[in-house]
Amino acid sequence: MSFLVQLYYTLYSLPGGEQPNHELRMCLAEFLHDYPGSITNALASLKKFLDRYKQWSRVWLYHGDLETDFLRTLGQIQKAAREEPVGIEMDFRKS
User: What's the predicted TM-score (pTM) here?
Assistant: First the structure.
């Protein structure tokens, strides 16, 4: 549960829409969509995202290495989940 809390916090702190580097957020959303199965093979989730992204015919706006940043972000989420299991307060009732 702590991993999911940290994942949601990270997901919503990343750029979205058509902003530069929004692909990382979309990739993490794909990871979350396939959770808990995606946790066993994160790179399969990344590949699935890339395959779907190509089908959408969107312009690639990511500046950097998406695979490295995706894996680094998952590592940071896992580390935060271990160190601060309830370190984030979220109120889903707020709009």
Answer: 0.75
The whole-angstrom separation of Cα 53 and Cα 63 is: 16
Measured distance CA(32)–CA(48) in Å, rounded: 12
* Residues 58, 74: Cα–Cα separation, whole Å: 24
How is the chain split into domains, by residue range? 2-83
The per-residue pLDDT for range 48-84, each reduced to its tens digit, is 999 988 887 677 788 889 999 999 998 888 888 888 7
Which three-class secondary structure string do you get for the chain? Answer: CHHHHHHHHHHHHCCCCCCCCHHHHHHHHHHHHCCCHHHHCHHHHHHHHHHHHHHHCCCCCCCCCHHHHHHHHHHHHHHHHHHCCCCCCCCCCCC
Going by C-alpha positions, the residue among 1, 12, 2 that lies closest to residue 84 is 2
